[in-house]
Amino acid sequence: MYFDHQDRRYHVTRARDLKRDGIGLELHADNRHVAEVFYWDATGEFTVSVFQLDVPLPVIQQLISAAEATLPPVTKVHGL
Fold this sequence. Notes:
By secondary structure, this protein is an alpha+beta fold. The chain is about 20% helix and about 45% strand. It is elongated.
C-alpha cells in the first residue's frame, strides 16, 4: 500500500510482532521507518508511534484509517 503526499511517496507494510503480541502497519519513507499504528492483541487497543519529525498530518490520518480498516481481528459470532 502506498500514500502519496506533496511529491513524496510513503510505503505501508503490515507486520506481526510476536514479542509485543500484536500486529501493525508500518509507514516508510526514503527507506526509513517513520511511523506505525499497532494493534495490541491482549488489550484490543491501537497505539500510534512516530519515529521521525514532521510527518504530515494527512499521511498519519491515512495510516490510522488504513489500520482501523485492516488490523482488528475479525470476531466470529457463534451460529452464523
